[in-house]
Amino acid sequence: MSAYVLQHDIEDQQTGEAPSLPETSTENNIRNRLPWKKSGHSVEPPRDDAVYYPKDDTYGVFAQGRDYEPVYITHKYTEEEKKTLSSFESEDYLPSHSEIYKSWLRRQGPLGYMLGKWIIMGLIGFCVGIIGFLLHNLSEEIAKLKWHMVEKYLENQDFAVASLFATGYSVIFVLFSAFIVVFLRPSASGSGIPEVSGFLNGTHLRHIFNIKTLAVKFFSCVAAVGCGLPVGPEGPMIHMGALVGAGLSQFKSETLRLTIPVFERFRTSEDKRNFISAGAAAGVSSAFGAPVGGLLFSMEEVSSFWTTTLSWQIFFCCMIATFTTDLFNSAFDGFSYTGNFGQFKTQRYILFQIEKGIDVNILMFIPTMIIGVIGGILGAVFTIMTLKMARGRKRLLNAISNEWVQKMVRIFEPALIM
């Protein structure tokens, strides 16, 4: 590394250009350095976590230490899991220590450096807000078309046709949503929150910040939400926000083979990490219309590196994202202009608005506490059963040796739920 820095420092000093940084953990150089590329003793990182299951797992379904457990229970790793964990690349997020690079940064001045960060934060918030607007309205249009046709059949008393149409319409969109994820980009599956959290805590995961992942996740989420699956856009919005933060802040794309010579000073692991944190927070803000909630989510749930300055920058990004989504939603109903551009009506943007106060009695706390206890117990049972069923599902899918059969099973899974 020192030889690399010295050589490039000399070249930059001679040309007078902005010093180039040592290559950070991009997918290409990670792929060439990982042990599974050089020896047969390690395994390749799983491309699709949804079906990854260690073949040497002999533990029972309710064995402790195999799912998310309390902190006092030690997780039990199999030998295959240990090899898989060792195949992931670790991020250190350390800035460049090149003297020429630090000298170049000082010449830029603190105002230009900080101003650039604020500009990028604003751009990330704006783009995430646009994505939130498009996601909401596209999924709404899909649902409107479905119920519009169903109402027509019901008016003609064609109840069987209405039922078949509603079911078939939903199944088609569900199959499309699952197909593009399974065959085009498995990294777009799920909410994406664990992957974003893993990266922000120092683990590099392949393909999670790729532009293909963004496109597949967007259209898959639109189809899944619009057709009526019991899912929401909030989790995917966090991942898509992080994707925007990762791509927009670097102004380059390996997939598109495009590099724009703008804000090159921010192409470091540390700055990229901060912009990804901002993008994830903006995704929450756009989905819920809550900029403070987005800031707190990023600070408490997914990020491990934080500063006071970063708090203000991310809050600014969240406000821009919320404002952009609400501004466009005020002007458009679906994609039809309503003429209400800039009018923020409380009944539309305040989800739990209380128009009239309610008188309470102290005795109301007794049934309230009982409901709370019952809800907590049911929630715990639901969480435990979900974790066990998810592990059992992975075991069953992993038992299917034919890859194509396995993919087809995964595609038709959500259709059966529908």
Fold-level CATH name of the domain at 114-347: Clc chloride channel
Uncertain stretches: 1-18, 20-43
Q: How would the global form be characterised?
A: globular
Note the total helix count: 15
Strand order of the largest sheet: 1-2
User: Which structural class should the secondary elements be placed in?
Assistant: mainly alpha
Number of strands: 6
State the share of residues found in helices, binned by percent.
Answer: 55-70%
Query: Main beta sheet: strand number and arrangement?
Result: 2 strands, antiparallel
Rg from alpha-carbon coordinates: 25 Å
Q: What kind of oligomer do you see?
A: single chain
Q: Distance between the terminal alpha carbons, to the nearest Å? A: 54 Å
Q: Please report which band the strand proportion falls in: under 5%, 5-15%, 15-25%, 25-35%, 35-45% or over 45%.
A: under 5%
The CATH architecture assignment of the domain at 114-347 turns out to be Orthogonal Bundle
CATH homologous superfamily annotation of the domain at 114-347: Clc chloride channel
Could you give the order of the helices and strands?
Answer: HHHEHHHHEHHEEHHHEEHHH
CATH class of the domain at 114-347: Mainly Alpha
What is the average of the pLDDT values?
A: 80
GO cellular component, one term: membrane
GO molecular function, one term: chloride transmembrane transporter activity
Main location: membrane
Membrane topology: Multi-pass membrane protein
